[in-house]
Structure formats: C-alpha cells, structure tokens
Design a protein that fits this description.
Blueprint (H helix, E strand, L loop, with lengths): L13 E3 L4 E3 L4 H7 L7 E6 L4 E6 L8
Antiparallel strand pairs: 1-2, 3-4
C-alpha cells in the first residue's frame, strides 16, 4: 500500500521474533540515495537527550601495510 503525500516518513515499530527486539523499515528512496545494500552493516546510536536514533554506515577499517 502506497503512503499518501506527507506520510512517507511515518513508520511503525514492529516486534521481531517475539523477543525484545524491534524493527523499523527505512524509506527505499533514502536507502538508494545512500548506496546501502541488503545485509550491509550499519551503526545505530541512541541520542537519549533528543530522543532519537542515528543510523550511519559501518566504518570500514583500513588495513596497515
């Protein structure tokens, strides 16, 4: 079901596996814009002061030669 104009950024939390984990869908437009792929690692940080989550690309470790 397509979302109406202005509702694209409204998402619901879903409980996963009956445990203590929740999932959240991300807008496909943003995922494509960032160049993220399925199974890619991301870092999720909680900003408790502002009550928000920050999702960032996993930093790639550089190997010293």
């Amino acid at each position: 079901m397509a979302l109406k104009q202005g509702e694209q950024n409204i998402r619901k939390l879903a409980k996963v596996g009956g445990g203590n984990t929740y999932s959240l869908t991300l807008p496909i437009e943003n995922v494509r814009e960032f160049g993220w792929k399925e199974g890619q690692k991301v870092v999720v940080k909680a900003d408790k002061k502002r009550k928000r989550f920050i999702v960032q690309d996993w930093p790639v470790s550089k190997v010293k030669k």
